[in-house]
Fold these 4 entries.
Entry 1:
Amino acid sequence: MSFSTPTWIFGDEQTLNLTRMYIQKHQDFVAPLIVKYAEEWTSLGKPIFRPLWWISPNKPVSFTIDDAFLIGDEVLIVPITEKGKVSRDIYLPGDDYKWMDLNTAQVFDGGTLLKNYSISLNEIAVFRKTL
């Protein structure tokens, strides 16, 4: 999402509603995680936003992914970065992890590559580590 262009410039209600929805999700879900991991950063020096190789340092594939990231070790964000795409490959790091898709509630094993994983135009793929 670009904040350099106001959403009302686009002139359609769908774009404005999506922007409102994601601002609310940021306030309700992301901001508390940032606060939590900022405290961890100050005490332990671990970054808030982490690359996938942070929890899968022995998996070469985790070093090749530069358009997905972790918030702490518990949330994986995998955006669609190509115009017109509605699916993408998603690598779930951490062989000993289980990841739940917060949009569908499906649970997957860490260390798995999800091929052509479907993501609607109104969603961002967000996975949360489950216990």
Entry 2:
Amino acid sequence: MFVRLSLQHQALTRCFCSVAQKPRITSLNIVRSRSNNPLLNLAYEETMLHKFDTNSRTLLLWQNEPTIVLGRNQNVWKEVNLPQARESGVHIIRRESGGGCVYHDAGNVNFTFFTPTHQPFDNLHIIQRALKSIGVEVETSKRHELLLNDKKISGSAFRLLGQYKQCYHHCTLLINSDLSFLDSVLLSATEKAISSKATNSVRSVVTNINETHPFVGKEDIFSALSTHFVLTYQDGEDVKFSYSEVTEEDLQQNEEVQEVVSKFDSWEWTYGQSPKFTTTISNNFSWGEMTIAIHCTKGIVTLCEVSTSHQDESLEQSVAQIFEGKKYSKSSILEIREHAPVHISDKQWTEIWDWLLGYV
């Protein structure tokens, strides 16, 4: 069967033909991860994309331990309440797809659709029909969200390879997530004075499905989604179907997964991938006021501009000099303090250390 390509599609694919053959779907695959380890799940998702057969359609079902997941082009210092996140022990991971910051926990489930073309609303409509089949009526938004009573229960992000020949679309779905904790660890775009071209998250009013449908559980949703995924693509054709599960042990022993894990687990990826930025912080101390403008590239302090109401100009120079060239991180500040010269270890500096450690 032939379909006429739109001019927009021709421009995107640089195709000079006016028609293209609809690819035949030969297999449908549903994979469920039994691991709740976010590093393993996100790494597995990435390896699946690179091995995806474009004649198939694949759905990955997964769930994570408490995790903050950043979009590829976001600034971790602007998006995350880092002191709160460290205190709670929540994971912080940067994914490969764009978009905003999301929170995963045991009350949230995740779906990833692997397709050869970018088709977000097709995928959302599958979820929409699945939820309707278990009594949950939701609407889609222009931002590729799912809304329950005008409140967000699902967000989306995408990754595309090979001129749109390999795509994934992953979605969250809030069933009974800890929304108060979500609010405490995710920052709004205006909470920190950070200047950057990084992608800012768009905060929305969210809700859980269980607020209005208390008896709907994750197994109900996984089952309904699996059914409607197959119904959507089977369409009377002779299509092979497979269902499989992967365990944490499977993923730990998978060399390709472990290679991606090593990247996702690195400081250079999670923090250093943040686009170039400048953050300005100020504080009033017992001896006066201090303002620091910290310029960072790849998470490294490239310039530190300090001004104080203190009469001793050497204090400004000392602060600037000890931070330049260092990682903008709590561990870096602790290391600097440990090896600081004796003359900057007095009460004045103790106040500065405590302030910086409570901020980064």
Entry 3:
Amino acid sequence: KHYWEICVENVQDWAVGVARYESVKGKGNRFAPDEGIWAVGATILGSYVAFTSRLTKLKLGTFPKILKVCLNLDAGHVSFYNAETMFEIFTFMMPHEPEVYPFFFTKDINNKIKLNH
């Protein structure tokens, strides 16, 4: 079991989660589990989404400033929480993956995603 926290306050157009190494080596990949990327994020329009095979729009009462990513390879899932309230945002079930890595992405040139701990 592993977890980390990501500060996304004031960042637009971002995605965070986990990915297989070979999934992020190339350019132009879709963010989706069938591409080896399990992630949630925010679009430039301010929508929060889970990057499922078809985007899943997330209805959040409060937009998170800090996300907690919880990876449990033994149980086969990765979950995302609002780190301040511990509200569960989304959980992906994952096939057995021997190696996945933290995944961070943003197109926002003015604000950066920051690893909180």
Entry 4:
Amino acid sequence: AVTFIGTSPVANIVAARCHNLNKCVTTLGGAKNHLIALPDCEVEGASSDIVVSFTDCAGQRCMAASILLVMGDREQQKAPQDKLLT
């Protein structure tokens, strides 16, 4: 599996090459601030920090997160998603 964070043009190249090789790939591009929630994250603290980043920094584009990637299988993703959506 391949994960890439960088510019959109390069992310597109990496994604295309990985798809041609039948590799799993996640590419994040476009000068966005990405947040990644791992399966073993402390959900209470992480959800609070995520909401603050999305809302409190919204006027400061360079600091505001705009993409949240929740890692793990569907069951592992459930706790962070439930906390953030309630």
